[in-house]
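Q&A log
Question type: sequence-to-structure
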Amino acid sequence: MAMNISAEGVAITERFFRAIDILIDAGHFRGLQTFTAMYGINRRNLTHIKDSPSNAVLKPETLVLLVKYHNVSPMWLLTGDGTVFQDGTNVPPKMVRKNKPRH
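Response status: OK
Response body:
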């Protein structure tokens, strides 16, 4: 049975994947598969949501990942108001990469 997601719900899903694409372009992760592996998300389910945003819904905890760990603005993510990132820009924060310790 297909769900009937509101236009507002579809817009949130589209913003979520727009933020994912921005973070991929900035090198935060290689692709959607890397993002799902990092957080233990079922990639097939997330791909289904991306392909059918009017028939499937994102879990709130999936949205929280972008806000908590990738500086995505919750206001922008939920309403589309403001900038993509919490620092007031549409540019993702620089990645801080830690070098592996040498033995």
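Response note: The chain is about 50% helix and 0% strand.
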